[in-house]
Amino acid sequence: MMSIIRSILGYTLYKYPNKSSKAQNVLYVLKKSLKPDNMKRVTGIGGIFFKARDPKALQGWYQKHLGLPATPDGYIVLQWGQEGDSGYTVWSAMPESTQYYAPSSSPFMINYRVDNLDALLAVLREEGVEIVGEPEEYDYGKFGWIMDPEGNKIELWEPRDEVFREVNKLG
């Protein structure tokens, strides 16, 4: 995102070399429009992931006693919202040996839904938040990871709910 700002600023300085105040105004407007308080960050909880001694048995317990619905892959997906404005939250017990939460040593990870992963990661990077790895993209959405100040890994997901529904054979 900042590279776009730099490109626009560079063009503005090229076009108006003797009017640096105009370039400064363009930069001010661009930065203001990208300010964190102007950008929607988290839109909901996309998933709750935690370590378990016996993930399949624990998921079975939650299905039997609390009625949580499982996908063919064995994790639980909860749909929420109303038609036209709905989404999914994944609930998944994972083996104690999973390295998916690394570099965190926490026994859990929360996935937050976001509207624009790339823009949010750019803002978080500028704010000094630790970014973990590179974003990954799948048919059902984009994923990125950050660390909170206490060493918990957080997953950020820009979902594609229609594809997610199809991939997981949800109604």
Offer a quick outline of the entry.
This protein has helices at 2-15, 20-33, 55-66, 117-126, 161-167; strands at residues 42-52, 76-82, 85-95, 108-114, 131-138, 141-147, 153-159. By secondary structure, it is of the alpha/beta class.
Characterization of the model:
- The protein contains 5 helices and 7 strands; from the N terminus they run H-H-E-H-E-E-E-H-E-E-E-H.
- Helix 1 (2-15) runs antiparallel to helix 2.
- The two termini are 37 Å apart.
- Strand 6 (141-147) and strand 7 form a beta hairpin.
- It has a 7-stranded mixed beta sheet with strand order 2-3-1-4-7-6-5, sandwiched between helices.
- By secondary structure, it is α/β, with parallel strands linked by helices.
- The chain folds into 2 domains: 2-34; 39-167, 2,3-Dihydroxybiphenyl 1,2-Dioxygenase, domain 1, CATH 3.10.180.10.
Considering the chains and any ligands shown, give keywords for the structure.
single chain; 171 residues; alpha/beta; 2,3-Dihydroxybiphenyl 1,2-Dioxygenase, domain 1; 2 domains; 7-stranded mixed beta sheet; 5 helices; globular
